[in-house]
Design goal:
The chain is an all-alpha fold. A two-stranded antiparallel sheet has the order 1-2. This is G-protein coupled receptors family 1 profile domain-containing protein. Belongs to the G-protein coupled receptor 1 family.
Amino acid sequence: MSELGFGLSLASIPFYVVGFVGNVLVIRIVHKTREMHTPTNYLLASMAISDAITIVLWPLYFFEFAKFVCKVVVLIEISIVVSSITITVLAVERYNALLKPFRTGLRLSEDNIKKRIALIWFVSILICLPEFFLNEWSEYYSTCVGAWRLHMNYPSKIYVVINTILSSYIPLAVVCYCYGSLIWGLYFTNTVCPETDEDRSSEKRKLVTTFLLVTVGFFIANTPTAIFYTGVASGLPVETNSKLYYDVLLVIDFVFVSSFCFNPIIYAFRTKNFREGFRRTISCRKPPQQNEIS
C-alpha cells in the first residue's frame, strides 16, 4: 500500500466509526420504536443496513489477498446500488408528496413499502450479479481484476458503463430534478409551504437546507466515481501512468466512502423524532407516543 493509501486509510477510520454507529442507531431506533414504523422510516432503515454493510466490508478493497475476496466485494456493490436507488425513491416520494399530493399511485404506504424495499434489493442484486462472474484473481497483478478496477477486460468495461448509467447517472438526474423542483417551488413559485407565519418560514428554510445537503452530498459522492470509472472503461491510458490513476482512485474512494457516515445525519438525525430516539437509546428511556418524522 502506498503512503497516500495508508494515510487515507487512517483518515477513513473516524468516518467508518461514525458511519457505522450512526447507521446502526437508525436501524435500532426504527426497529424498537413502534411509532417509527412508517414507510419513510422503513426506507431509511433499509438504506442504513446497506450503508452499514458497505462500511464493514469496504476495507476488503485495500486487502485483496485471496481469490474469494474478489467475489465477496460484490456484496459491497450491491449495498451501494441499494443506497443509490433508495435515495432516488426518497427523492421521488418527497417530490410527489409536496408537489403532486393527489398523485397517489406512486406514493409509499404501509401496504406496499415492504414490497418496494424487497424490489430495491432484488433489482440491486440483479444489476450487480454479473460482477460475480467478471471479478477474478490475477496472478500477474497480484490483485483482483474485473469490474471497478483499473485493469478491466472488454466485458467488464461494457458492464461498468451500463452499471454507472443505471446506478449513478440516472439516479443523479432524478434526485437533482426532484429536489431542484422542490427548491424552485419553495423559493421562487411559492407553491410548497407558502409562508404564512414565522413557523412556516422556519420550516421552509429547514426543508431547503435538507434538500440542498442531500443533492450536494449525493452529487459529490457519486459523480467523481461515475466519471472516473466511465473514463477507465472508455479507454483512459491507465497502463501508461498507473500510479497517478491509482492515487486519483484512492482519493475518489475516500470521498465516496465518507459519504456513508453523512446519510444518517442528513436523512435521520436532522429530524426531531430521530434525535429524540437517539437520546432515548443513550439514556435507555422508553419511547413516548409520537407520529411519523416526515
